[in-house]
Amino acid sequence: MQRLVSIVIPCYNNELYLGPCLDSIIGQTYENLEVIVIDDGSTDGSWDVCRKYENMDSRIKCFRQKNARVGAARNKGLDNISGQYVMFADSDDILEKNAVETAVKLLEENEADLVQWDTCFFETNDADPYQVGEKEEAEYAEIITDGPGAVEILLDSKGKGDDPRFVLLRNSCRCVWNKLFKAEIFKELRFPEGFEYEDDYIASDLFMSADKIIFFNRQLTYKRGHDTSVLRLMPLKGRFDKLECEYKRLKLVENWNKPAVMKMACHTFFVSAMNLGLACSMQGDQDSLNKLSSRIKGEYGTYKCYLDITDRLAVFLFLYFQRLFIAVYRKYRVNH
Description:
Blueprint: E1 5-11, H1 15-26, E2 33-40, H2 46-56, E3 60-65, H3 69-78, E4 85-88, E5 94-95, H4 99-109, E6 114-123, E7 142-145, H5 147-155, E8 179-182, H6 198-208, E9 213-225, H7 236-253, H8 259-282, H9 286-303, H10 309-320, H11 322-334
Parallel strand pairs: 1-2, 1-4, 2-3, 6-9
Antiparallel strand pairs: 4-8, 5-9, 6-8, 7-9
Helix pairs in contact: 1-2, 5-6, 6-7, 7-8, 8-9, 8-10, 10-11
């Protein structure tokens, strides 16, 4: 007998793409689903779309709340799930027809707690909301690991992540919309609210809550890029939240006694800080830039021993020759 899979979908002002998303879910080859849509205070016609599909398919349950951002919407969804397994989708995603069936089969056959698949990213065409990208299939492969191993994959920029069979897997480790979880993982765990990059912030917690994790490189989610997507409209506050995600992982691996992993965590944290510094400068926000400088100065003294010479030089220039750093780094980012 198929176990029940709960799919949580937060939605805010996405009436154009919500229908294609829901169609791709109710058309899944795996039928034992409940679909929980949280309308996060939409001001367009998203709620009308929700009600239409709720009346169309008894597996769909829709809830409405005042706008509280994605973390709060996902938490409300989690508070209403009944399934043994849980997935998340963004309201503009489209799932491959056999996505749920494929993920459940892999999870159950391997007695795993979490599986993650690859993603097909594409630029959207508003004239055709059902459009999807062209997948790039690689030789099939799996990585089976535990929680710490998954965190290492997330941080790794030179090892398994450079294997062409897994090139996109690493980049999506921080997201929840390409994973199937045993629901018990969320028994005590929730997304931070009022925080951007809310799934990135708990990504390591999710991995560490699982004893067995499977990464596989089939593209089961189509992820569209468009001008109103959350990441393209990310405020500066969100970039500071992103830095906290990296710092949280740094503190996690600090106690593992694995210098190579600690080096990756420190590199990622300080590169994120440099990117944030550039964003502050480009927006002319000197107060935020000063705030960041003070923060980084303290962390640099503690963790510079884990940085290579290039990273040390970059952080040193940022702290003590900021104008020169910004000019050089801006030119570097434009050309890379």
